[in-house]
């Protein structure tokens, strides 16, 4: 089955999605005659001007509600106009899971962009954190429009990086100039130290960084505080060690941990706080069902819970 590329534009009302899509479809470098289905999932202040598109090959199809996102309906809209690709202006109040879980199987997201008004971004995040995180977590580029000098770029940067460590961040100034975020994100611990000390407040960042690239932790010796978890699937000398982690809000708190090996693991109690020093080996383990980091404990000691038991990025 032929794959259909999808270009996804997310964000909230008056974030600049329509303007960007309009300009994209006017650009002959992008619009070279391919039959294109444009799904409109919200009505903004601006309207499209199809007369300015580079060709008459764009077919606009409104999607009235989140419940209307169904694979059969989307496939029917595509076939009706015989489109080769899809652009989606997505409603900021709808979750991306609704789209990802219901898209036709052969629709593949080629690029995903998130748009926001730089002057209201912090307010949106404070009041609708879950929806903001939903739009940030998988995008490749965040575009912050109408950026005034008063915008706290460091705070914006921290919020975006807590959700997505890989996307580019661009600020569009009132005059149309674009500046890219070049704030560096050095790790708050030294991976070259003989023992890599992970502070309580840095666990979330440590776990996210480890999950992105296991290989740079192989052979390292780590020391950090966490909770003991047990699983009947693990052998007697194995246990899981980690923290409860909140990525976005209280609804998404989950336990995140790594498999550890210690001869006296049976003596440990579920929910017990420890400080563990261990070496990391990257290997297949049945607890992961794949290759992953396995910690061999060198030393452990009982500990008091951290000041903030649930780890967060902010």
Give a verbal description of the structure.
The chain is an alpha/beta fold. Helices cover 20% and strands 33% of the residues. It contains seven helices and 15 strands. It has helices at 17-26, 71-81, 96-102, 121-127, 129-136, 153-163, 203-212; strands at 4-11, 36-40, 58-62, 85-89, 107-117, 141-145, 168-172, 178-180, 196-197, 221-229, 238-246, 254-261, 273-285, 290-302, 311-312. The strands form two sheets. An eight-stranded mixed β-sheet has the order 3-2-4-1-5-6-7-8, with helices on both faces. Strands 10-11-12-14-13 form a five-stranded mixed beta barrel. Helix 4 crosses helix 5 (129-136). The mean pLDDT is 93.
What is the molecular shape? elongated
Supply the number of helical segments. 7
Largest sheet: 8 strands, mixed
Lateral strand order in the biggest sheet: 3-2-4-1-5-6-7-8
CATH architecture of the largest domain: 3-Layer(aba) Sandwich
Taking all Cα atoms into account, the compactness measure Rg is: 23 Å
Low-confidence stretches: none
How much helical structure, as a percent, in the residues? Answer: 10-25%
């Amino acid at each position: 089955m032929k794959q259909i590329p999808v270009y996804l534009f997310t964000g909230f009302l008056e974030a600049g999605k329509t303007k960007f899509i309009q300009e994209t479809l006017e650009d002959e470098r992008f619009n070279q005659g391919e039959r294109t289905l444009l799904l409109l999932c919200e009505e903004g202040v601006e309207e499209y001007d199809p007369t300015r598109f580079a060709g008459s090959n764009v077919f606009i199809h409104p999607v009235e509600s989140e419940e209307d996102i169904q694979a059969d309906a989307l496939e029917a809209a595509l076939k009706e106009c015989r489109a080769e690709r899809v652009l989606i202006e997505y409603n900021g109040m709808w979750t991306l899971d609704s789209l990802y879980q219901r898209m036709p199987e052969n629709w593949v997201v080629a690029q995903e962009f998130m748009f926001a008004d730089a002057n209201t971004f912090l307010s949106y995040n404070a009041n609708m954190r879950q929806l903001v995180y939903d739009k940030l977590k998988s995008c490749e580029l965040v575009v912050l429009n109408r950026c005034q000098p008063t915008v706290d770029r460091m705070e914006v940067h921290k919020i975006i990086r807590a959700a997505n460590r890989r996307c580019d961040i661009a600020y569009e100034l009132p005059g149309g100039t674009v500046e890219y975020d070049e704030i560096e994100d050095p790790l708050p611990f030294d991976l070259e130290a003989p023992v890599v000390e992970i502070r309580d407040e840095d666990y979330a960042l440590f776990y996210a960084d480890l999950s992105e690239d296991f290989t740079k932790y192989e052979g390292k010796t780590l020391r950090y505080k966490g909770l003991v978890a047990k699983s009947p699937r693990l052998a007697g000398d194995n246990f899981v060690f980690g923290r409860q982690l909140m990525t976005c809000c209280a609804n998404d708190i989950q336990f995140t941990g790594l498999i550890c090996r210690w001869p006296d693991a049976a003596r440990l109690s579920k929910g017990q706080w420890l400080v563990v020093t261990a070496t990391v080996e990257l290997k297949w383990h049945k607890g992961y069902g794949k290759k992953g980091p396995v910690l061999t404990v060198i030393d452990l000691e009982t500990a008091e819970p951290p000041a903030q038991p649930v780890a967060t990025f902010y």
